[in-house]
């Protein structure tokens, strides 16, 4: 049974941080000691004390953040002997689901989860693909222009601003359910 977990994430605009906090909240509620680390701000030098390691990245323009990859590469030998879970926060996932673009969703799963695990010769016990948050306030000017029609598409798909310029499309129940399943994973 999991006693101590590390959640290491990479994020650009904070959605993956919020998802990591949601996962941590569930695990803590089950009595697990959890350390949450923003890979851009803090470095991990040793993972030996953790029974479960969860690594997450945000996706923007079909590209993940670099820090989680560096972590996976650096600790790939140790992670082969740990219970490892990977997750991705993809802003466009919820919209793709509503529009029935299952090929796009499977492509994201393949590229950012399955291929990532294979690249580092890892066998994760769980892989989560979650929707993310669109924060139009923090996008660079060139991106705002390129995505000008996206707000309308989000509104038409039933997503509302949670704050001015922010659309939180995450399914917190799915994230919590995934995290709860991690509690039961046997450790190595």
Give a description of the structure.
With 188 residues, this protein is α/β, with parallel strands linked by helices. The protein has one domain: Rossmann fold (3-Layer(aba) Sandwich), CATH 3.40.50. 41% of the residues lie in helices and 23% in strands. It has eight helices and eight strands; from the N terminus they run βαβββααβααββααβα. Strands 1, 2, 3, 4, 5 and 6 form a six-stranded mixed β-sheet that branches. Strand 3 and strand 4 form a beta hairpin. The chain is globular. The termini are close together. The mean pLDDT is 91.
Name the features.
globular; 8 helices; six-stranded mixed beta sheet; 188 residues; Rossmann fold
SSE inventory with pairings:
Blueprint: E1 4-10, H1 15-29, E2 33-38, E3 52-60, E4 63-64, H2 66-74, H3 76-79, E5 83-90, H4 93-98, H5 102-119, E6 126-131, E7 133-135, H6 141-146, H7 150-156, E8 166-168, H8 172-183
Parallel strand pairs: 1-2, 1-3, 3-5, 5-6
Antiparallel strand pairs: 3-4, 7-8
Helix pairs in contact: 1-8
